[in-house]
Protein backbone atom coordinates (compact mmCIF):
# COMPACT_ATOMS: atom_id res chain seq x y z
CA UNK A 1 0.00 0.00 0.00
CA UNK A 2 1.30 3.44 -0.95
CA UNK A 3 0.53 6.78 0.64
CA UNK A 4 0.70 9.75 -1.72
CA UNK A 5 1.24 13.00 0.19
CA UNK A 6 0.41 16.03 -1.92
CA UNK A 7 -1.79 19.10 -1.84
CA UNK A 8 -2.08 19.06 -5.64
CA UNK A 9 -5.61 19.39 -7.01
CA UNK A 10 -4.94 16.41 -9.25
CA UNK A 11 -3.98 14.15 -6.31
CA UNK A 12 -6.88 11.73 -6.72
CA UNK A 13 -6.23 11.45 -10.47
CA UNK A 14 -2.51 10.83 -9.89
CA UNK A 15 -3.33 8.23 -7.22
CA UNK A 16 -5.81 6.43 -9.50
CA UNK A 17 -3.35 6.36 -12.40
CA UNK A 18 -0.53 5.19 -10.12
CA UNK A 19 -2.78 2.51 -8.66
CA UNK A 20 -3.61 1.19 -12.14
CA UNK A 21 0.04 1.25 -13.17
CA UNK A 22 1.44 -0.63 -10.17
CA UNK A 23 -1.54 -2.80 -9.29
CA UNK A 24 -1.58 -1.80 -5.63
CA UNK A 25 -3.60 0.41 -3.34
CA UNK A 26 -2.74 4.12 -3.28
CA UNK A 27 -4.16 6.42 -0.61
CA UNK A 28 -3.91 10.20 -0.62
CA UNK A 29 -3.13 12.63 2.20
CA UNK A 30 -3.28 16.38 1.60
CA UNK A 31 -1.10 17.44 4.53
CA UNK A 32 1.00 16.00 7.34
CA UNK A 33 -1.94 15.86 9.76
CA UNK A 34 -3.75 13.48 7.38
CA UNK A 35 -0.49 11.67 6.63
CA UNK A 36 0.23 10.97 10.30
CA UNK A 37 -3.36 9.85 10.91
CA UNK A 38 -3.24 7.40 7.99
CA UNK A 39 0.20 6.10 8.98
CA UNK A 40 -1.15 5.35 12.46
CA UNK A 41 -4.16 3.49 11.03
CA UNK A 42 -2.57 1.35 8.31
CA UNK A 43 0.73 -0.18 7.27
CA UNK A 44 2.21 1.39 4.14
CA UNK A 45 5.12 0.11 2.08
CA UNK A 46 5.94 3.51 0.62
CA UNK A 47 5.23 7.17 1.35
CA UNK A 48 5.51 9.38 -1.73
CA UNK A 49 6.12 12.97 -0.61
CA UNK A 50 5.54 16.01 -2.76
CA UNK A 51 8.08 18.68 -1.67
CA UNK A 52 5.34 21.31 -1.60
CA UNK A 53 3.87 19.63 1.51
CA UNK A 54 7.28 19.52 3.17
CA UNK A 55 7.83 23.19 2.44
CA UNK A 56 4.41 24.11 3.82
CA UNK A 57 4.88 22.11 7.05
CA UNK A 58 8.62 21.48 7.56
CA UNK A 59 8.35 20.85 11.32
CA UNK A 60 5.89 17.99 10.88
CA UNK A 61 8.30 15.95 8.78
CA UNK A 62 10.09 14.47 11.79
CA UNK A 63 6.76 13.45 13.34
CA UNK A 64 5.79 11.71 10.11
CA UNK A 65 9.11 9.82 10.03
CA UNK A 66 8.56 8.75 13.64
CA UNK A 67 5.20 7.12 12.87
CA UNK A 68 5.85 5.72 9.40
CA UNK A 69 7.30 2.46 10.80
CA UNK A 70 9.04 0.49 8.06
CA UNK A 71 7.59 2.38 5.11
CA UNK A 72 10.14 3.68 2.63
CA UNK A 73 10.02 7.33 1.59
CA UNK A 74 10.25 8.83 -1.87
CA UNK A 75 10.38 12.58 -2.33
CA UNK A 76 9.33 13.57 -5.83
CA UNK A 77 8.00 16.83 -7.26
CA UNK A 78 4.69 15.87 -8.82
CA UNK A 79 4.31 19.23 -10.56
CA UNK A 80 7.23 18.53 -12.90
CA UNK A 81 7.34 14.73 -13.00
CA UNK A 82 5.71 12.69 -15.73
CA UNK A 83 3.46 9.78 -14.84
CA UNK A 84 5.90 7.33 -16.44
CA UNK A 85 8.75 8.67 -14.31
CA UNK A 86 6.58 8.59 -11.16
CA UNK A 87 5.65 4.94 -11.81
CA UNK A 88 9.30 4.02 -12.45
CA UNK A 89 10.46 5.80 -9.28
CA UNK A 90 7.75 4.13 -7.18
CA UNK A 91 8.57 0.70 -8.59
CA UNK A 92 12.27 1.24 -7.91
CA UNK A 93 11.59 2.39 -4.35
CA UNK A 94 9.39 -0.66 -3.70
CA UNK A 95 12.06 -3.01 -5.09
CA UNK A 96 14.73 -1.28 -3.00
CA UNK A 97 12.54 -1.63 0.11
CA UNK A 98 12.04 -5.34 -0.58
CA UNK A 99 15.78 -5.89 -1.10
CA UNK A 100 16.55 -4.06 2.14
CA UNK A 101 13.93 -6.09 4.02
CA UNK A 102 15.32 -9.35 2.62
CA UNK A 103 18.86 -8.36 3.62
CA UNK A 104 17.64 -7.49 7.11
CA UNK A 105 15.81 -10.83 7.43
CA UNK A 106 18.96 -12.68 6.35
CA UNK A 107 21.08 -10.75 8.85
CA UNK A 108 18.63 -11.48 11.68
CA UNK A 109 18.44 -15.19 10.79
CA UNK A 110 22.25 -15.42 10.66
CA UNK A 111 22.58 -13.62 13.98
CA UNK A 112 20.01 -15.85 15.66
CA UNK A 113 21.55 -18.97 14.15
CA UNK A 114 24.95 -17.94 15.52
CA UNK A 115 23.53 -17.22 18.96
CA UNK A 116 21.72 -20.55 19.05
CA UNK A 117 24.81 -22.44 17.85
CA UNK A 118 26.91 -20.83 20.54
CA UNK A 119 24.37 -21.54 23.29
CA UNK A 120 23.83 -25.13 22.21
CA UNK A 121 27.57 -25.75 21.94
CA UNK A 122 27.94 -24.45 25.49
CA UNK A 123 25.15 -26.76 26.68
CA UNK A 124 26.82 -29.73 24.98
CA UNK A 125 30.21 -28.90 26.46
CA UNK A 126 28.90 -28.28 29.98
CA UNK A 127 26.68 -31.34 30.08
CA UNK A 128 29.53 -33.47 28.70
CA UNK A 129 31.88 -32.25 31.41
CA UNK A 130 29.22 -32.62 34.09
CA UNK A 131 28.37 -36.18 33.06
CA UNK A 132 32.03 -37.18 33.64
CA UNK A 133 32.04 -35.93 37.22
CA UNK A 134 32.15 -38.62 39.88
CA UNK A 135 29.36 -38.98 42.42
CA UNK A 136 26.42 -37.81 40.31
CA UNK A 137 23.04 -38.56 41.88
CA UNK A 138 21.08 -41.53 40.52
CA UNK A 139 19.32 -40.70 37.25
CA UNK A 140 21.50 -37.62 36.55
CA UNK A 141 23.59 -39.25 33.79
CA UNK A 142 20.42 -40.21 31.90
CA UNK A 143 18.99 -36.70 32.24
CA UNK A 144 22.25 -35.15 31.08
CA UNK A 145 22.31 -37.54 28.12
CA UNK A 146 18.74 -36.49 27.30
CA UNK A 147 19.70 -32.80 27.37
CA UNK A 148 22.75 -33.53 25.20
CA UNK A 149 20.60 -35.44 22.72
CA UNK A 150 18.07 -32.61 22.48
CA UNK A 151 20.83 -30.02 22.04
CA UNK A 152 22.49 -32.16 19.36
CA UNK A 153 19.19 -32.57 17.46
CA UNK A 154 18.61 -28.82 17.51
CA UNK A 155 22.16 -28.18 16.32
CA UNK A 156 21.64 -30.68 13.50
CA UNK A 157 18.45 -28.89 12.48
CA UNK A 158 20.23 -25.52 12.51
CA UNK A 159 23.05 -26.83 10.36
CA UNK A 160 20.83 -28.68 7.90
CA UNK A 161 17.76 -26.48 7.69
CA UNK A 162 17.44 -23.22 5.81
CA UNK A 163 15.67 -21.00 8.35
CA UNK A 164 15.08 -18.23 5.83
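Q: What amino acid sequence fits the structure above?
A:
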Amino acid sequence: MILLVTAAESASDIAARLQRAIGGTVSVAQDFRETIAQLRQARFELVVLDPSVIEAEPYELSTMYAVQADAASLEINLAITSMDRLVAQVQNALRRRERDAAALRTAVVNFLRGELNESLSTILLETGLLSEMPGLPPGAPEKLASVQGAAQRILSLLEGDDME
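Q: And what stands out in the fold?
A: The chain has two domains: 2-81, 105-160.
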